[in-house]
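#onboarding

Welcome to the new folks! Below is a worked example of what a typical request in this channel looks like: someone posts a single protein sequence, and someone else replies with the predicted structure as tokens. Don't worry about understanding the tokens yet, we'll cover that in week two.

Example request:
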Amino acid sequence: MIRILMIIATLLLLFVSYYLFNKQDIFFVLIKKNDKNQGFLQFYGAAYAVLGVMGVLAAFFNQRFIALIFLLIVILVSATFSIRFAKKIAEPKQ
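Example response:
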């Protein structure tokens, strides 16, 4: 059961990574379109892609400790992305 949930989480991470890399116009409705924000989205797109690959490996090994470490890292990266993205949304879009 844990393996199935890990694979679902990994697919979700890879899906979000794809959107952060290739569909950035969706995000530029909310934040200002400039090089700094494009770099921000690409950085977190790469981070989610790496986490997706790590998730495949974590699901493959099927160890509880590895799964917990993976989930902890995903939660930390997601929290930092969410907080930083919320701050960018709150900035005025001149």
